[in-house]
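Quick one: structure for this chain?
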Amino acid sequence: MEYNNFDEELNALHNRVLAKALTEEEQNNYTEALFESIKHTNEYGLEFWYARELSKRLEYKDFRNFELAIFKAMDACKNSGYEISDHFGETTEMVTIGSGAQRGFKSYELSRYACYLIVMNGDSSKKIISLGQTYFAVKTRQQELIEQFDELSDVQKRLAIRREMAEHNKLLVEYAKNAGVETSQEYAISQNYGYKGLYGGMSAKDIHSHKKLKPNEKTLDYMGYEELAANLFRATQTEAK
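Got it. Here's what it folds into:
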């Protein structure tokens, strides 16, 4: 598949599934942060999700029902030739109970692949499950392209990183709000400090001027893949902070 058709493929998939599952208002309220905001990172830098947190996001009231989807996902994992233990790890998850105190309950640490399998084996009558199926289908396709990254041309690499950059910018808005950044002006100031740190003191306006761009041209659209990769690193480090 030509890479320049990738955006069209993902957008078509996303819109086709959402159109069947959600109202227009629900589509507008959906953001990737629905899943990404509960992602954790272990001491080795690997991402994972807690099963009980995920069950709440997927609107399961009874964890025992959600666990049935986990067991089905484990079977699917095994049947696909993967080790269950690589994607599903039993753990104790701290959950806030009625009194405000926390109590440890049996749970699982899940890989992204495990989450994908759980969603695909979840209750399809739930609209939120349809969202999840779309989300993980898109992310899985992106991961496939990342694994093929070395085989891409410079132009294709630039397009791949530019799309990732766009997604991380959406997440940064969510994370900034959670950190107390309330107005668009405050967010712009925050972004500007990131650029200054990467470009030796140059502001976003300085970079735009240095590239001799027109007012309506976006700076990120006029970067090569190496410069975009540096900015993607900047964005991910900002998210981590």
